[in-house]
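Shipment paperwork, digital attachment
Item: protein structure file
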Amino acid sequence: MKLFYFCLFSVILLASCKKDKDEPPEAFRGKYYGEFYVDKGGISYNLSNVSFRFEGYRYDFGVSEIVDYPEYSHLGKEFFLTAPDKITFKLLLPTAQQLKREYVYTIKPDSLILINTISPTEREIFRLKRAR
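Attachment content:
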């Protein structure tokens, strides 16, 4: 009889587990291109053209001197959204200090802005437009 209750409890427990197959919000689907720069004390530097491709909770990332660069480096892995307005990228760039970064995001009708505040006077900023 104990075995019956154990099996019944196990089946109920497994059935109650949520299968997390949800998709990210529309703003985090598809392709984007734009620019990355660091703002330090009101001065922008380290400007690069970037491309993102979001698919599910995975992404690819590319950097180029050419605007709307079509190639991706495939260095991206996963990203996570945390309420209300934060996104964390795993392995954004292949440098140790950027293996995991959290950005505050702003969604606009045709664009996406990601900001990582490093210090009160220094921020990393991605300004991205949705590719059509």
